[in-house]
Amino acid sequence: MAEPILSIEDLRVEFDRSEDKVYAVNGVSFQIDPGQALGIVGESGSGKSVTLMSALGLIRENGKVKSGVVQFEGKNLLKMSSRQLEDIRGREIGVIFQDPMTSLNPVMSIGDQIMETMLTHHYAGHREAFDRTIQLLHEMGIPDPKARFKNYPHEFSGGMRQRIMIAIALACEPQLLIADEPTTALDVTVQMQILALLQSQRERKNMSVAIITHDFGVATNFCDKIVVLYAGQVMEMADTSAFIQNPAHPYTLGLKNSIIEVGQRGRKLEPIPGMAPTLTEPPTSCSFADRCPFVTDRCREELPKLRSVESNHLVACHRAEEVLARAN
Amino acid sequence: MPTNPLVKVENVSKRFRVRGRELHAVSNVSFEIEAGKTFGLVGESGSGKSTLGRLVLRLLDANEGRITFNGKDITNLPNRQLRPLRQEMQIIFQDPQASMSPRMTIGRAIEDAMEIHKIGTKQSRRKRVDELLERVGLPSFVKYAFPHELSGGQLQRIGIARALSLNPKLIVCDEPVSALDVSIQVQVIHLLQELQRDLNLTYIFIAHNLAVVEYLSDEIAVLYLGEVVEQAPAEKLFKNPSHPYTQVLLQSILKIPEDPSSRQKMTHIQGEIPSPFNPPSGCTFHPRCPFATDVCRTQKPVAKHVDDDHKATCHLIG
Amino acid sequence: MAIAVSQTRPVAVKKNRSQFYQSWKRFRKNYFAVGGLVWVAIFFIIGIIGPWIAPYSYTDADFLAMHAPPSAHHIFGTDQVGYDQFTQILYSVRYALEIALGATCVSFIIGIVLGLWAGLAGGIADMLIMRGVDFMFALPSFFFALILSVLLGKGLFPMILAIGVPGWAGYARLIRSLVLSMRNGEMVEAARALGASQTHIAARYMFPNVVGSMVVSLAFGIPADLTAQAGLSIVGMGLNPPMPSFGNMLANASSNILGFPWLLYFPASIFAITLLAFLFVADGLQEAFNPRGGM
Amino acid sequence: MFMLRFFAKRFVAIVFTLAAVIAISYIMMYESPGGFMSTSQVASALAPIAAQNPVLYQKVMEEFQQRYGLNLPLWRQCLQYVWHELTFNFGNSMQNPTQTITSQLKTALPISVILAFSSTALSVVIGIPMGVIAALKRNTWIDYTVTTLSMVGQAIPSFVLAVIFVLIFGVLWQNILPVTGWGTFSDAVLPVISLAAAPIGVVARYMRGSLIETMRQDFIRTAKSKGVKYWPLVLKHGVRNSMTALITVVGPQFAFTVVGTVLVENIFAIPGLGKVIGNAFPNFDFPMAITSVFILGAIMMITNLIVDLFYAWIDPRVKLQ
User: How far is the C-alpha of B210 from the C-alpha of B253, rounded, in Å?
Assistant: First the structure.
């Protein structure tokens, strides 16, 4: 197996607040293999974006990476100077964000914003960058790219803006694309268009993709491997098929049961009680214990380690085997 | 056909004027809801579903058409007479924080609803606040909290409690769960379901999530650019989607596959929802419709019966 | 079934959780603002008790001590007529406050009436009032005050009107925009859905949410009116001498300065510090009421 | 074509506003104790001439009767006066009845314009970098110094600062900088500083707040994710966007500066329009007073028009209307 393109080991991130600290990421580890599509799934506050954004130095000032290693092409991103990191962002790793309405600079034409990526990294000269921008816009399915080059973001619809975001992220043909909730703000029909676009681009360029999402439908249909985060920790990590068929963590199981799908009228709902905690202290026991139907005394005392239950299937739960048995 | 519906909406239209341009938010919509049932309104952003919900409650005034609530024509009812009626028809919002005064504690907010209608004494209202909070699954001390101190899910429960405090017959649920996390969504849906069962509530459930609407609703109307394109009982709509737009919507849902090999293909329709300021001619869906013909481009379709209680507004039917 | 809320953030039940208490807590932490408030308070006290502690009457000219430097008799010195500067300042404070408060009230009352009218009535009334606002903003209100003061004369009450009347536009615009943003907001829609009457909505929902902005704009308005009043004196349209005012003292002193710098030391420094104090207070209030927005 | 229509519309609005200002001032002053202009008033203003040169007196008197329509009803007087003003046909003043207002303002106007514009320019040139540095060094001593200085500058009105300068440079350290008169570059130093202090404070504080706010926006994160380097990020994305907010305060700030000019000229005895106003109002020379206000008003409105154009240019979301 080839070296992973990005590997995160024991990452810890804290945020300072006026009166306390929030432990947003508490020892997260996972890898993305070349050409792989990884889904990072979790609810709000689970640390799913913070994990990747902190690796790229894109979190707010009050956030601090406390420990961990983020290996990208054999180098630790966390040890890099901000200048070295700038050379990687946009060139080796492209990023797309959730809200296409606010993620584009409102006073810069979209063409200039796409070109800026290439010019910053000396990826192309002015002339080539312009040609490539037109070509990218065309590839992204934006009609009449030459005329629209000079338009500003507010002159586009949400779906079109997300296409422009993708063009920006892909301008320098990065090896890894990080998409942070790329379709959450969009209508379903447009979501489908954007996902199809991402998929075709990924196949054509043999690019690795990490999709951060709260939507199991997006993750399971798009990704090869899925990581489930809760309270800043990896709860479960598995290939998509194992994930769909044998979820081994009570939280994953609960989440899957929480999703209402078409054709489920009359199904009995079994909500997970309670809500996700905001950790103001580092976790010392299972963070899910309070909401877990499988909870035992051990769960409230001992922090479960991420361990392997099947090949390529890691779970952080003391009672994973029982969960597996029940699901089957 | 229901004989004595709680809500009857007939040929209702609403236009907005925005900087001199006219926007057809809702065009010629009709439906009826029987007491104790849930009527689902689905559509993407800009489809007019929220406007329609507000028209039913007379939070907005319709330009045309008639709205009957509990046998009473409320279309032109003056505010003075409408206000007491509001006890019977309530709304819960997508963003509960925006719908509450940031300067009022939760307890005051719920109490205020009862105070407006002079329900009970001060003591009995206070007691009722505790009961309501318990009913929606919150501890009573949250009544001392301010809205910004609570989470989205908790606030949505408060919104429900406030609506319930008036013992309404009808609740318009305007995207009540779309801003919430998956696990919290189910909690709220579960709560809504229980309340309907226990209190015989009638819901108008507005959402863009088809699965949730299907799950909760007895009858569903699909809206596109302010027009109902298809309307049917939930089972029929999903079993036999007759309007191309409904079909597209259904295909756009990403179901969790059985295993990766049975994944959905990312098939999609071209284009986005056109500007409501200048909607396409003929059938408003024709620019995106895979089956569009010349008729669709020029003539406006009328609603046709697919079945006795299943209607779709498409030239290709029948 | 009741869903357990086991991990609710505990809400501390404190006795005083009213908005004003919260704002006061934030205000208290801002030392500049608190310092400003202390100075403003002293200024107010002097304004009230000034005439009682003044050693002379402001019309008493000490002909034996013209241009006298500060001394035991005249602690702030005297001017070319022999007016005791300390007395002059005590009265200036009083008149400055009377005019500034009066003018701010006048502006605010006109502004709130027109602003509410425009915001609530909409349509033609709104259009006309907003045209009026545009008109007032086309020229600095100081010029309108100057022109009005010609018509009204140079007394205390005319000054209040001359400064106060042209100041309405800012308040009207603020109140209208507050009313509009709320009227179209979800909070008011929710209150309407509950069946609340217009008066109930205005009193329980809108007012508590706008009072902060109004207090802040008033706090900025008072020093602006103090400045306008002094400015009118500079161009000779201020209070009629011998009624003392900061503007008159500054204008007089700056043209009589050579050899008599004390005529400037006291009024200039007291006036400057006062304005600074008012601004610190206003700025502190802005931050206290509206911790996120604003500059 | 679009621009032309925009200009035409704004021009008409400006003319109407100015006409209204003149008419309202005229009527108010007509009703004031001094009266705007009457035969007896003119007669008393012309008294010195009458004694020396009765022929000239007759001539000037007739001119005044004619031009200000002293025998006409109020509304016609007013209309005639408004028309004359709008066509820059200002007539003679009361203080110098034999000279036209135009000739008297010829030297005064450029002085005020120079003062107002140079202090505004200075406020932008100094205020923006101050604000940017404060924002980038947020919560350091640099930031606190800039913020406090800005507050002080903003709190103290230009004329009080001018008085303090007169005290410092007129009494304590004489002969460093002149505190009266006009003519050389050094004469302008103190007035411009007094005038610029407040706008510098406002611009710096606003820029700081606006840049801090901008740097938190999502599109800044996007630019960072593209690998844009620090200074291009701050300047091209941060400052550029903050400017759109800043422009909204420049217009009102210019109005303050114009008023400040009027007052500061009176403190430093600078023969500009402000000094003219300071002489005209207390001496009931209303034609002169109104004309001065009219000219300052016209300059302000045209400046605001230019600011709006600039705003539309810098922020593509703004539509001219």
Answer: 8
Top CATH class of A6-92+174-327 equals alpha beta
Report the Cα B87 to chain-centroid distance in Å: 18
Rounded CA-CA distance D235/D218 in Å is 16
Inter-residue contact A119 to A133 (CB < 8 Å): no
Q: Which domain holds residue B146?
A: 102-165
Same-domain status, B159 and B177:
no
Superfamily of domain C22-47+83-288: MetI-like (1.10.3720.10)
User: Which of B98, B144, B194 is opposite residue C11, by nearest beta carbon?
Assistant: B144
Q: State phi, psi for C105 to the nearest 5 degrees.
A: -60, -45
- Counting one residue from C and one from D, how many pairs have CB atoms under 8 Å apart? 137
- B93 occurs within a structural domain: no
**Residue B253 three-state SS:** coil
Same domain, B175 and B259: yes
Q: Kindly write down the DSSP assignment for every residue of A84-146, as one continuous string.
A: HHHHHBTTTEEEE-S-TTTSS-TTS-HHHHHHHHHHHTT-S-HHHHHHHHHHHHHHTT-SSHH
Q: Which two tokens stand for residue B144?
A: 């001392």
B255 lies in a domain?
yes
Distance (Å) of CA C216 to CA C32, C106, C211, C290, D251? 16, 17, 9, 9, 22
Q: Do A159 and B184 touch (CB under 8 A)?
A: no
Number of domains in chain B: 2
Residues of chain D in contact with residue A107, where contact means CB-CB under 8 angstroms, are 240-241, 244, 314-317
A54 CB-contact burial (10 Å; exposed 0-12 / middle 13-18 / buried 19+) = buried
- Partners of B117 on chain C (C-beta within 8 Å) are 195
Task: Starting at the earlier edge strand, list the strands of the sheet with A233-239.
Answer: A93-96, A176-180, A208-213, A37-41, A225-230, A233-239, A313-315, A307-310
Q: How near does any CA of chain A get to the CA of B184, in Å?
A: 7
The sign one gets for the Cα dihedral A145, A147, A149, A155 is negative
Which of A103, A119, A173 is the mutation pick for testing D, counting most D CBs within 10 A? A103
SS3 B68: strand
Residues B182 and B38 in one domain: yes
Helix or strand (DSSP H, E) at C210: helix C207-234
Q: Contact partners of C by the rule of 3+ C-beta pairs under 8 A?
A: A, B, D
Domain spans, chain C: 22-47+83-288
Buried b (16+ CB within 10 A) or exposed e, C245-281: bbbbbbbbbbeebeebbbbbbbbbebbbebbbbbbbb
- Among residues B194, B231, B221, B169, which one has the least CA distance to residue B36? B169
Q: Are residues B161 and B186 in the same domain?
A: no
Do residues B230 and B313 lie in contact, with contact meaning Cβ atoms separated by under 8 Å? yes
**What are the angstrom distances between the C-alpha of C253 and each of A58, A297, B112, C79, C231?**
59, 84, 60, 8, 14
Q: Subunits with at least 3 CB pairs below 8 A relative to chain D?
A: A, C
Instruction: For residue D149, give both structure tokens.
Output: 């200085």
The residues pairing with B39 across neighbouring beta strands, listed in sequence order, are B204, B219
CB contact under 8 A, C2 and B134: yes
Inside any domain, residue B197: yes
Report which residue type is found at C168.
W
**Interface confidence (ipTM) of the complex:** 0.89
Return the domain boundaries, chain A. Answer: 6-92+174-327, 102-173
> D177 in helix, strand or coil?
coil
Output the tens digit of pLDDT for each of chain C's 295 residues.
233 333 444 444 454 566 677 788 888 888 889 999 999 999 999 989 888 887 777 777 777 777 777 877 777 877 777 788 888 888 999 999 999 999 999 999 999 999 999 998 888 999 999 999 999 988 889 999 988 888 888 889 999 999 999 999 999 999 999 999 988 889 999 999 999 998 999 999 998 888 889 999 999 999 999 999 999 988 888 888 778 888 888 888 777 766 677 788 888 889 999 999 999 999 999 888 876 543 3
